[in-house]
Specification:
This protein is an alpha+beta fold and 81 residues long. The chain contains two helices and three strands, in the order βββαα. It is globular and about 35 Å long. One of its GO terms (cellular component) is chromosome.
C-alpha cells in the first residue's frame, strides 16, 4: 500500500460496521450535500448536527422524517441548472 490508500485488489483491513448509525441512532440531519441514484434506490449524503461527519442515508429512511430538507435540496439542484 502507498501512504494509506489501497485498491480493490489490495486488502484495506476495513472492519465492517456492526452498529447502527445516523437516523437509527437518533442523530439529527443538518443538511443534504449530495445524492446518488442506482437502479431503484437513492442515497443522500448528509451532515449531522453537532458533528463533522458525513453520512449516507437512504431515501426510504429520510423522506418521512425530513421531507423539507429533501425538497430544499431538490430545489437547490434546479436553481443550479
Amino acid at each position: 500500500m502507498d501512504g494509506g490508500t489501497c485498491s480493490v485488489a489490495q486488502s484495506c483491513n476495513v472492519t465492517p460496521r456492526t452498529k447502527h448509525s445516523g437516523l437509527v441512532r437518533g442523530r439529527e440531519i443538518e443538511k443534504v450535500l449530495h445524492s446518488y441514484k442506482s437502479k431503484d434506490w437513492v442515497m443522500f449524503f448528509v451532515t449531522w448536527k453537532r458533528s463533522y461527519l458525513v453520512g449516507a442515508v437512504s431515501s426510504e429512511e429520510i423522506k418521512h422524517v425530513y421531507p423539507k430538507l429533501i425538497i430544499d435540496y431538490i430545489k437547490s439542484l434546479k436553481l443550479n441548472d
